[in-house]
TrEMBL record:
Keywords: Membrane, Transmembrane, Transmembrane helix
Gene Ontology CC terms, in alphabetical order: membrane
UniProt keyword annotation of ATP-binding present: no
Designated name of the protein: Zinc transporter
Organism: Photobacterium iliopiscarium
Keyword Transmembrane helix on entry: yes
Intracellular or extracellular location(s): Membrane
Membrane topology: Multi-pass membrane protein
GO molecular function: zinc ion transmembrane transporter activity
Pfam families linked to this entry: Zip
Transmembrane segments: 6-27, 39-58, 70-89, 109-128, 134-155, 167-189, 201-219, 231-250
Origin: domain of life: Bacteria
């Protein structure tokens, strides 16, 4: 299986997972946003996201900028900016929730925007990847995260004051973000000769969202905050990070 075929397979698997996980809440009209939990899978995904962001994306992006004569640490600035933007979005959502506005359309739309940014940039990384080994690890992490994120977003949309049609449109937009990202990443590879800085720029932006997914996504419910003292879950974080460190030998 070549890279393009694996990218198509990845998009299909993620799309099916997203749709199936989000369909049930719309059919049953769930009224609770209590997240689905799979601690081991979430912890492993956190470690993979953290390792991919730090070891692969930031390292590759920084080296690429240096190779083009840019000594300013722009890769870290871009990654840090995305990280802080996502953190601000989550704090804004948390504030709305604390003030009893969790059923408002604004809260649902904000959740969709946050998760869509994650999906778009994660898809871009898959599209940019030149190693099947690297892509397999990222695919596993995305699938482990995606089903719970899709379910939670569908619940939030279905319990909001948005109409069913509006909610389905929002969910559809979220669903297509990752395929768009994969297409964007693949397209960037076609123009690297004419626009060599596009690849490190998008790697830097994606690194920011991967670092966020691996650390503070969900704030106090995140693996490294809520379950940081659970040795079993923390071990899975370390395993995920270690796997990405090993992949770096070949990728």
């Amino acid at each position: 299986m070549n890279l393009d075929e694996f990218k198509i397979l990845s998009v299909v698997l993620i799309f099916i997972t997203t749709v199936l996980a989000g369909l049930y809440p719309f059919l049953r009209k769930f009224k609770t946003t209590r997240p689905l939990e799979s601690p081991a899978a979430e912890a492993l995904a956190s470690g993979v996201f953290l390792g991919a962001g730090l070891i692969h994306m930031l390292g590759d992006a920084s080296k690429s900028f240096l190779d083009h004569g840019i000594e300013y640490p722009i890769a870290f600035v871009l990654a840090g900016s995305v990280f802080l933007l996502l953190l601000w979005f989550e704090h804004l959502g948390r504030r709305l929730d604390e003030h009893g506005d969790s059923n408002s359309p604004a809260f649902a739309i904000l959740a969709m925007v946050i998760l869509s940014i994650h999906s778009l940039l994660a898809g871009t990384v898959l599209g940019l990847s030149g190693s099947i080994t690297m892509m397999v690890m990222i695919l596993i992490a995305i699938l482990a995260h995606k089903w719970a994120a899709s379910f939670s977003l569908a619940v939030q949309l279905s319990k909001s004051r948005l109409s069913l049609r509006q909610s389905l449109i929002m969910f559809a937009l979220f669903t297509i973000m990752l395929p768009i990202g994969v297409g964007l990443g693949s397209g960037i590879l076609e123009y690297t000769d004419n626009y060599p800085l596009l690849e490190p720029i998008f790697y830097s932006l994606a690194a920011g969202t991967f670092l966020y997914l691996g650390t503070l996504h969900g704030l106090k419910q995140s693996t490294l905050v809520d379950k940081c003292c659970d040795l079993r879950n923390f071990t899975f974080v370390v395993i995920g990070f270690a796997l990405m460190a090993v992949v770096a030998i070949w990728a």
